[in-house]
Amino acid sequence: MSENYSEILYNVLEESLESLAFMFAESIDTSDIAMTDTECIKVTMEFTGDLYNGSLMMIVPSNISSEIAANILGIEDTSDDATDLGDDSLKEVLNVICGRVLTEISGTEPLFDLSIPEIEKISCTGLENYISEQNTCSAIIDDMYPIILQFKKY
Amino acid sequence: MSLNILIVDDSQIVRRVIRKTLDIAEIPYTELYEAANGKEALDLLNENWVDLVFTDINMPIMGGIEMVKKLSVDDVLKDIPIIVVSTEGSTSRIDQLKKDGVSAYLRKPVTPEQLRDIVNDLIGGGEDE
Prior knowledge:
The complex is a heterodimer of chains A (154) and B (129). Chain A has 154 residues and is α+β, with helices and mostly antiparallel strands. Chain A has helices spanning 6-21, 65-73, 80-84, 86-106, 128-131, and strands at 25-27, 39-49, 54-61, 112-114, 118-123, 136-141, 145-153.
């Protein structure tokens, strides 16, 4: 029987964004998601472990990155620092989410090696291809920014 | 007592967050060094006296586990307290890190209270030397 981790993904996303960046996520139906920006950012990381290997992917509109950096650091989102550290902040958010998702799914006994997150700028069109896959959650952050999170086991 | 502290993480924003958390926790430091990987950290430790190291595990070039193992066999550096700050939650990983010489483990995101308690446990707090 195949498992579906969408609820775990959403719970970890909500908790991680709140504790790390003081931002609030609200779950939405994946069919309702609409990107507000033309350019999106895809962040991915892979993991290898005792039980299984896999990957975690996050897609957000690019205009959220400086706001996440600003919230993490407690600075203005228009500052140069927030702009410069935007990509870095998205990688860190996914890193925290990945560690917590693996623990939620498999407990604290198994060992996983996590890769360093990689970032890629993509078009926001055609995201329905990601959304239709299993183990995906979608949410709206701070009533403004859509986010897609997808977990894969290999 | 004012400390010389080294923060090892490939993420600039994580280094900034740890720096900010140290400030909020009112942990006194004289020098705050930063390194982006284990190799940079070892180079820095060979040139500067450091009282306390915060390190991530997953970093390019040299990760935190390899760095900890190298420190543990260095006669001069082996007694420096090392605090791992990571997202990983595996108890077997944490147990192994402690066997390798890590003094404490904190799971991200770290609060100022957690940081202050750990540093006070390892270094002692509130007393001037």
